[in-house]
TrEMBL record, chains A, B:
Belongs to the isocitrate and isopropylmalate dehydrogenases family. LeuB type 1 subfamily. GO terms for molecular function: 3-isopropylmalate dehydrogenase activity; magnesium ion binding; NAD binding. It comes from Patulibacter medicamentivorans. Homodimer. Keywords: Amino-acid biosynthesis, Branched-chain amino acid biosynthesis, Cytoplasm, Leucine biosynthesis, Magnesium, Manganese, Metal-binding, NAD, Oxidoreductase. Catalyzes the oxidation of 3-carboxy-2-hydroxy-4-methylpentanoate (3-isopropylmalate) to 3-carboxy-4-methyl-2-oxopentanoate. The product decarboxylates to 4-methyl-2 oxopentanoate. Mg(2+) binds at D213, D237, D241. This is 3-isopropylmalate dehydrogenase.
Length: 344, 344
């Protein structure tokens, strides 16, 4: 199995290295590292080169850590930005479905802002549309104004709805479809298409509509009500970060971007490049370990190996492993050791 | 003082009535009620008639309860919808600044999903741009696709930034400007304009940029870090509902929509029309009472009367008043009695 590795920026490289060590203990993988994001801008003037894109296309799966940082922050539309690499990669690889599972670990209840009784029993999956909407619509900018177009085709909504319903069938058979149908035309289309797909092929799955503002609230107040949440790109971005609060830290959440049957999936932690703590060896690598687990499962079909990583992470947390973001003092290296001990 | 009253739909009428009673005890106001939202669609075929709009324009302040409900939910773009009335009213009255204060009351800490130590000391104000962005941009819909345009002018960003900086000066001198500048052109313009206004006229106020996904998380994890949050229309809608979780219930949050020096302001609870509990006499009227307090303060300049309502609500909660949404059994009428007793 060949895995294209994109360490990216900030804490990216230092959480990638231990993840590759961990994967190395589980099988025989070929890793090839490629410049990406700000690191690629510095050398090649663009966040995603043709070489990196081709290497990803030829691989069996792509592992990405994180991109971005103040060094490349700019409000000048003519300058390259690290996120363009991420958005370009998602689009070019045809990865329209982003899967973000959230299942708070009892060992981390203390690290969460939420009360134990709110968290208990939470087990949800955010299915975020990843290659459409306002992220990819036409943008304009003049001296006096700016615009971004949010655009969705019926086909784009149809296919992401199917991903959500299929996922629900393997879980608890409940889908919340989140939109802003009382204001947006794209949301009214979204709602209509989701209901058509539901009626035609998934009538036995329970379907609920929820407005995005209401969902932001309900996620915090009553998270156990959710099984699968399906929503468009921007809403998914905001809601999955809000949902991260259920896990105690963004440092715990993996994601899988899939959808193209003929190409590799992309696996990355939900968190960013955390430039403020980069280079100190204290970043929490667990979300990247768990992303590697998703890579093994969804990308390479290695279910047993995926479960082994997940169980080892749970076990290490049970043993008391706590990085800074979780209220502890463990370093990145100590986190790797703790998980590796459990894996053995 | 003349107050235009729009009870609207769902629980709207039953939370409006006690609010008018309360206001009646504080001064000599002329109330005129007008059909609005779904109630107006049923009678006049449109959510906002010219008569209602004119009456609002002629008033000194507008008090609105809530609009919407499943009866008028439709994904057919040719059908009238209750929210069009709300959006039309905001736009026609020139109310570009929506102020949403969030200050959890210790008496309600138990009703919140968040831990006491997270809530303690939280006191923030969301300043939401209310008449621009994707809410008002051009919309299209065909058989195969749909679109919504997010559009902002420099002037629109400039004036809302000033509202936020002015508010911060009277508070703790800190503004978080929230955008998605790593993806949206409107956000890059937003960030640039906010910094220009800051540099030119408010350099002594502390200014922080924050991405919307990150803000959704930080609001829950570390709410005490915030003083004033300023953001565009859609982000403000989502974030202020997320912030509502800090108050234990959406049933506690008032809002003021202002910005037009030559016309009335609009005062309304943040929550919706709650059709599921409408007509049962159990809706929490406190957010509407607190909206009336904001009306007295910002709309009519009656500071003492505003403070009296706010103190009475705090007092009643301290006495143990809990409606259903707060985990208790008090009815709407009992809530009015409890607050009125404190007011006396
Ligand atoms: C970095 C940014 C462009 C990206 C996004 O908004 O999609 C990130 O927040 C994410 O959620 O993966
Ligand atoms: C009813 C709806 C159109 C409205 C909005 O999104 O502005 C509401 O959610 C609000 O926040 O006042």
């Amino acid at each position: 199995h060949s895995i294209a590795v994109l360490p990216g920026d900030g804490i990216g490289p230092e959480i990638t290295a231990p993840t590759l060590e961990l994967l190395g203990e589980l099988g025989d993988f070929t890793f090839t590292e490629h410049p990406f994001g700000g690191a690629s801008i510095d050398v090649h003037g663009t966040a995603l080169t043709d070489e990196t894109l081709d290497a990803c296309k030829r691989s069996d799966a792509v592992l990405l850590a994180a991109v971005g940082g103040p060094k490349w922050d700019t409000t000048d539309p003519s300058k390259p930005r690290p996120e363009q690499g991420l958005l370009g990669l998602r689009k070019q690889l045809g990865l329209f479905a982003n899967l973000r599972p959230v299942r708070p670990v009892p060992a981390l209840y203390d690290a969460s802002a939420l009360k134990r009784e709110i968290l208990d029993g939470t087990d949800l999956l955010v299915v975020r549309e990843l290659t459409g909407g306002i992220y990819f619509g036409e943008k304009t900018r003049t001296a006096t104004d700016a615009s971004d177009l949010c655009h969705y085709t019926v086909a784009e909504v149809d296919r992401i709805a199917r991903v959500a319903f299929d996922a629900a069938r393997k879980r608890r058979n409940l889908v919340h479809s989140v939109d802003k149908a009382n204001v947006l035309e794209t949301s009214r289309q979204w709602r209509q298409v989701v209901h058509e797909v539901h009626g035609a092929d998934y009538a036995e799955v329970q379907l609920e509509d929820q407005l995005v503002d209401s969902c932001a609230m309900e996620l915090i107040a009553r998270p156990t009500q959710f099984d699968v949440i399906v929503t468009e790109n921007l809403f998914g971005d905001i809601l999955s970060d809000a949902a991260a609060m259920l896990s105690g830290s963004l440092g715990m959440l993996p994601s899988a971007s899939v959808g193209n049957p003929d190409g590799p999936g992309l696996f990355e932690p939900v968190h960013g490049s955390a430039p403020d703590i980069a280079g100190q060896g204290i970043a929490n690598p667990l979300a990247t370990f768990l992303s590697a687990a998703m890579l093994l499962r969804h990308g390479l079909g290695l279910e047993a190996e995926a479960t082994a990583i997940e169980a080892a992470v749970d076990g290490a947390l049970g043993d008391g492993l706590r990085t800074r973001d979780l209220g502890g003092t463990a370093t990145t290296a100590e986190a790797l050791d703790a998980v590796r001990r459990r894996l053995a």
